[in-house]
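Structure ticket #2291
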Amino acid sequence: MPLATTRRAGLVDQVIDQLREAVTAGEWPIGHRIPTEPELSAQLGVGRNTVREAVRALAHTGILEVRQGDGTYVRATSEVSGAIRRLCGTELREVLHVRRLLEVEGARLAATARTEEDVAELRVLLNRRDTDWDEGRLDDFARSDAEFHQVVVRCGHNGLLLELYRGLMEAITASVASTSDNPEHAEMIRHRELVDAIEARDAARAASEAAGFLDELIARAEDL
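Resolution: structure written out below.
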């Protein structure tokens, strides 16, 4: 996404919006070093102080990270994700506990609010996830498993819950990758019973299925 020259009013807010959009659109991925202050100043047609204030504001939210003498890097894709990263860090157990809070209720809501189209999409994603695992594509598996769980939450049709979950996606994908190094355990977690419960509109069973595998993961993480 090319950056556009800003208008003079509300310059800092405009620069913040454009930098945030570059991150969320994937122009600057997680871990990527963004252009330097002079480069951004030239692209946006604003002073370096304006760019500096905008970068400082996004660093405060956790989206960017300023590394003195090295540059500014993308740390998260949204303010929610940045806040969660500051809260959870890289602690696997903390990420799993937060996932449990969101995914159990997400599964319960999905069972009550899902549409036929939602169930069909879940089946497609589940098959993709299982194929990635069966064929040993572990990086793809981590992404497809995380996407599957996000769609479960989306099937509940609660916008705020989905937004909270989306903010966790980087940490969720990392947690999947961290817990899929045990082939025997990953083989047991197929999620077909979860989708069956959602399709049957059995909210209690859907919540139980979501809680069950996460409780297993949490127990294993606590043994580390």
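Closing remark: The chain has twelve helices and two strands.
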